Here is the input.
Amino acid sequence: MTWNAWNASVPLLADQGYDTAGTTLALYSLHGFYPDLADRRDDLLLVDLPTLYGS
Here is the structure.
């Protein structure tokens, strides 16, 4: 899902009556993330392999 699709989907869910105030976007990666990605938004959950396997 692209950022634009994510930004569009939350209002659609809200319009259907869902409470989206605490919505979190989970991103999974085999190779990690740019170091500043988590600093850009506070509604992201970044999951890389070490996080997934508890390393």
